[in-house]
């Protein structure tokens, strides 16, 4: 059975199942419903909590035109974490993975493990090399072009640029008209998400403070920036396992749940039974 809670007016979430709590944080242009497959897979072994991040689903965005920082988003999620006596497993996708990483640093005692799927944690590189780093110039260029289109009132073009960057050229043209309409309504919030990433500064010292076991999952066919982020994570985080899903892209939690759901479920169970990998183990899933 699924219940709806609203610990604060800004955040809503669903909860189902019994066991160790697992909090699933969705990516930009999405909502908590993206986790249906994983929630069903984990049900019966874990208590699954699926929040809507600010500005998505049933959760309100920031007040006025002010952009919320990653730290502020984590603060809004604190009532979710505080509902449980035990530390939670955190699972995040894309922007949600950046929020999850921030939460693991801010509240190490409340986070049992951290799973990041295609983490959009560009701030790891920006903190060292700046936003104009050549290593993330394609993403920054796409984000700025999308922002310009949005400022000109063209939300469709803004979302076309966003979708084609993450899923490959022509992805927008292959989507249905109804999905395009739905995605266009998220364009402004996506720009706020990008701004939150730009404002955040995540240093090596912050990374050293993430003391829980970490699973990092990327798609083999994702943008090259994802590989760069993964390499940075492997060098920075103390206890990390890296898995690459062959043939998958950025949206792998939705496109390849037959691979990612068991992968995540096994990792969570291993952590509950005292798992700890050697640093930087890389596994290939096919």
UniProtKB/TrEMBL annotation:
<dbReference type="InterPro" id="IPR029058">
    <property type="entry name" value="AB_hydrolase_fold"/>
</dbReference>
<feature type="domain" description="AB hydrolase-1">
    <location>
        <begin position="21"/>
        <end position="257"/>
    </location>
</feature>
<dbReference type="Pfam" id="PF00561">
    <property type="entry name" value="Abhydrolase_1"/>
</dbReference>
<dbReference type="InterPro" id="IPR050266">
    <property type="entry name" value="AB_hydrolase_sf"/>
</dbReference>
<keyword id="KW-0378">Hydrolase</keyword>
<dbReference type="InterPro" id="IPR000073">
    <property type="entry name" value="AB_hydrolase_1"/>
</dbReference>
<protein>
    <submittedName>
        <fullName>Alpha/beta fold hydrolase</fullName>
    </submittedName>
</protein>
<dbReference type="GO" id="GO:0016787">
    <property type="term" value="F:hydrolase activity"/>
</dbReference>
